[in-house]
Write a structure and sequence with these properties.
single chain, 476 residues, FAD/NAD(P)-binding domain, Enolase-like, domain 1, seven-stranded mixed sheet, five-stranded parallel sheet, globular
């Protein structure tokens, strides 16, 4: 029996940070990871790889569509998968080096294999052959096993014509056409990335409205931009049958419940994710996952066993890399009474790394109406912003929502270049309980995208006095 203070199951963002925080507190830590590499979805198959691919797609799209006078750039009509993924491999390798450096620095012992509970303090580590390699004992155990793409039984994921969000980055060849089933965050991101690379994309949404939790004006602008990329958008429909069409190369045919028959080189299925709780031996300790494999925890991230914590995607919403990392820290702080900043989840920023980016925090117009809170909106337009003209991005807005009576900031919604960065200015204003005047009185470097905050706040101040928005771009 190998005895530790803390045993962590899963080497993704939540598990990694839990292990490091415990080791920094002087605890002896074991980290169990079933994959050959650490980092989880964040590093290897999800967050960083997809965002790196997005940057490559933006670069290619910019060279093809944003021509500069007197500057000619040649780019191949066809780009291979290895060429696109070369940068991704370098980014991932660098991140893995950093993770291993920190684990080594704090003497965290890493064990490869499947961890399964024998009791509330004991983990059996199984090798790839299914045999038990060793037993680990821990006073505190943290479950950070993440999630995996949902794979319905009626779809054959052959890694040749049919892929999920984990395997799509290992396409054997660059497709000419793609069907994306599922228009959630992952589906929209990949649809726009491949469309920007010149792939003909059909996006099938099971819902009547695109991203219904996003402010309706922003979602409408995103849909417009997706169509401009050439994406065919099919709403309120789902697959009835998926068939492989043999050939050289093979193709895939999707028949939908709505009667559509779609054919393409490849299919990406991106409808939902399930918690990785199977095979953990939870039945031995009385922890019961829900239908999606997700675990229930209290405000301290404890399960029904006070010494067993769960963090990250395996506990469900918000399932962000940022919150997973912080949840890992908080679990250890709660377990050992370590003082420090607490996790604030009342108002989280969200980002959709589509082309263009969407990011938001706080109330939407729709939630303010549901709460019967009168409001005013102020907008800063990329088209009227000099930095937008310089960069060549003019289709976005910064939209601020304020209570009508007090002009207290309630929501920030952005679509356009660097939206995922710009939203944090709004986050700071929300945390500070800022009002429109506070934002309007804050000066920004010129020319910057950030200056749209001031413009939007001034528009809202005018709207409170005189209903109706001024002409977009009106100087103040």
């Amino acid at each position: 029996m190998n005895r530790f203070d803390v045993v962590v199951l899963g080497g993704g963002p939540g598990g990694e940070r839990a292990a490091i925080h415990a080791a920094r507190a002087g605890k002896r830590v074991a980290l169990v990871e079933r994959e050959q590499v650490l980092g989880g979805m964040r590093v290897n198959w999800g967050t960083l790889p997809s965002k790196t691919l997005r940057e490559s797609a933006l670069f290619v799209y910019g060279l093809r569509h944003n021509k500069l006078d007197a500057i000619n750039v040649e780019i191949a009509d066809t780009i291979t998968i290895p060429e696109l993924m070369y940068r991704e491999q370098r980014v991932v390798q660098r991140e893995l080096e950093l993770i291993n450096r920190w684990l080594n620095r704090y003497a965290i012992e890493t064990f490869r294999g499947e961890g399964r509970f024998l009791d509330a303090h004991t983990i059996a580590v199984h090798g790839v052959d299914g045999r038990v390699r060793l037993h680990l004992s821990g006073d505190v155990i943290v479950i950070a096993t993440g999630s995996s793409p949902n794979r319905p039984d009626d779809i054959a994921f052959d890694a040749d014509t049919v892929f999920d969000s984990t395997t799509v980055l290992r396409l054997p060849r660059m497709p000419r056409s793609m069907i994306v089933l599922g228009a959630g965050v992952i589906g929209v991101e990949y649809a726009s990335i491949f469309a920007a690379l010149g792939v003909s994309v059909t996006l099938v949404d099971t819902r009547a409205e695109l991203l219904p939790y996003v402010d309706r004006e922003i979602a409408g602008l995103l849909r417009r931009e997706l169509v401009r990329l050439g994406i065919v958008y099919v709403s309120n429909d789902r697959h009835a049958r998926v068939e492989r069409i043999d050939g050289v190369p093979p193709m895939v045919r999707v028949t939908t419940l709505g009667g559509n028959v779609l054919e393409a080189d490849v299919l990406l299925y991106a409808v939902g994710r399930d918690g990785n709780s199977r095979g953990l031996g939870l039945e031995a300790i009385g922890i019961v996952p829900d239908a999606r494999g997700l675990l229930t925890v209290n405000e301290k991230f404890q399960t029904v066993h006070p010494n067993i914590y769960a963090v990250g995607d395996v506990i469900g919403f918000p399932a962000l890399a940022s919150t997973s990392m912080e949840q890992g820290r908080q679990a250890i702080m709660n377990a050992y009474g370590i003082p420090g900043p607490k996790l604030r989840t009342s108002c989280l920023p969200f980002a959709i790394y589509a082309i263009p980016e969407v990011s938001y925090i706080g109330d939407t117009e729709e939630t303010l109406k549901e709460k019967a809170i009168p409001y005013v909106a102020g907008r800063g337009h990329y088209e009227m912003n000099p930095r937008g003209q310089i960069v060549g991005t003019t289709g976005g807005i910064v939209k601020l929502l304020f209570e009508r009576d007090t002009l207290a900031l309630r929501g920030v919604h952005i679509i356009g270049h660097s939206a995922s960065e710009l939203v944090h200015i709004g986050q700071a204003f929300l945390v500070a309980n800022a009002h429109a005047a506070d934002i309007a009185e804050t000066l920004y470097n010129y020319p910057t995208f950030s200056d749209m905050y001031r413009h939007a706040a001034l528009v809202a101040l005018l709207a409170q006095e005189e209903p109706g928005e001024p002409t977009p771009g009106e100087p103040f």
